[in-house]
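Q: My labmate handed me this sequence with no annotations at all. I'd like to see what the chain might look like in three dimensions before we decide whether it's worth expressing. Could you predict it?
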Amino acid sequence: MSTAMAVPKVEDLTLSIIEEIHVKATTEVTFAALLEELSSGMTGAENKPLLLKIEAWPGGRWYRDLGDGNGHLWAHVQAIKRPTLLEFYGPLMMSYAVASNVQYRLSEEPGGTLIKFHHFALGVISDDFRKGVAEGWKHILERAKQRAEKK
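A: Here is what I predict for the chain of 151 residues:
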């Protein structure tokens, strides 16, 4: 007996989010603010801290530290070139079959810094995740901008 199985379309197995934001601060200040936001600054539901840490070197981990050896690996640092590039690869906050690449590219521009962001993922990506992730990345970029512009 054979059963027919629906073959997913490529669009159903990929995710691509692209954002740009202008920051009124130097690339050095903006890069430092971005690292802060992606670690100790990140919050989740009800604005509670996510307890994230970044080992800011190639191969370093980006993970949620719940204490006592418990936590959740989000990604590894694929590339870091201060103050112009921060790149991660890993499952991020998704606990299912998926691989992601996240890139933050920073460049000087008149009056500050331009951050170009790209999140590309391949795998079984839930519809619920798709709905919220783009807004989540926008929120993180905006908070990093606010953090940098306060310095």
